[in-house]
Every structure is written in structure tokens, then in C-alpha cells.
Amino acid sequence: MFFFYFGDVTECVCDSGESFFVGDFGKFGIKIYPLFVFTFCCRFQVFSGCSDYAGRVGGCDFDHTTFERPPLKFEAGTPDYIATNGLAKAIDYVSAIGMENIQAYEQSLTDYALQQLREIEGMHIYGHGKDIEADAVISFNVGNIHHADLGTLLDQLGIAVRTGHHCAQPLMDRLGILGTVRASFSFYNTREEVDTLVAGLRRVIKMF
Fold first, then answer.
1. Measured distance between the N- and C-terminal CA atoms of the chain, rounded to whole angstroms
2. Which long-range contacts (CB under 8 A, 24 or more apart) does 92-100 make?
3. Rounded to whole angstroms, how far apart are CA atoms 208 and 203?
4. Which of the residues are catalytic?
5. Helix or strand or coil: residue 27?
6. Are 51 and 22 in contact (CB under 8 A)?
7. For the whole model, what pTM was predicted?
């Protein structure tokens, strides 16, 4: 959910000659990569049609997990059968646009956003190294500014980003950070909106 890169996984699974159960969090990539099953040399792939905004888990690392108090601990509840029909319509919608078209546009938009963001002093971008093809999700921090402060002030300017550990607490511990700001793009976003994000960041940074 934090970095989106398939090369290492594909090589590991396809070249090993062994049988694997690979847990691929495909809910982000399924909208632009229609050939997952063939790419990963697997018999089937499972993906979800939602993002987990409610928390069932209080915290986690490689040693232990703490759960939320009831009823949040059991929040799954009745399967959302109405949303499954909506998911089917959404799949029809993106298929009509063309997943290859969506992928190409999002990649172009991401490249533009990375170029603009890297011009901001103190910018630290995670997971977008050179020559790495990644999804249209950019996680970053600026200087010593707390990610929640950046996100809150951007929200006051009408700019929606996500902040926090992004369900990747062990990775954050490994990187030695509390969290990041995360900007996500899709085919309905524009370069003008990227410019608005960059301008908003420049304005907010001056407050610190």
C-alpha cells in the first residue's frame, strides 16, 4: 500500500519453479494492469474493491498486533452486496476507457508531479527511484515538518491528501519516520491540479 512495484515479485515467483501463495494487494493496480494473472505466473488473483478507512487494527509490527475495541474490532458486518454490483459497474467503466489508456495517462501525470515536487526545497520522496515504474501514488515529507501538519494545512486550502503510516507501520519503523503525506492521482486528475498541490505546499512550508 506504500510502494507499488512488481519487478522483484515477478522475478521471484516466475523464475523459482516453486509453488507460492503470493499475497498481492491488488486493489490499486487492478484498475490499470489487466494482465496480473499472466504477469505473476499464478492461477488466480484476489483483489478488493474498497479502501479500509475504518480501523480494525490499532497497531502492528512483526512481533505483535493490537486490535481496536469492540465494535470496531468486528466492523466487517454484513457483506456489502450492493457495493459489489457497483464494483461490477466500475469495472465496466474503466474497461470502456481502456486500462492501457488509464495507465499511460496516470504514468504521465505521475512523472509530471514528481518533476514539480522535486523542485521544492527539503522534499523527500519515498519509493520513486530512478527508472522505477510506480503507480500514481507519491509519499513524501518536507524537511522536519510533521506530516499531519502538512496534511491539515493543505486541507484548509481545499487540497486532499492522506497522512499517517498508511497501514505500513513496520516499514515506517524501518525508515525511521512516523508517517508521510501521500498524494494519489487517477485518470480524472489534471496537471493543473498537480500545480495546485505544489503551490499549496510552497505556501504551507512558509508557515514553518
1. 29
2. 94/31, 97/187, 99/31, 99/32, 99/33, 99/34, 100/34
3. 10
4. 167
5. coil
6. no
7. 0.67
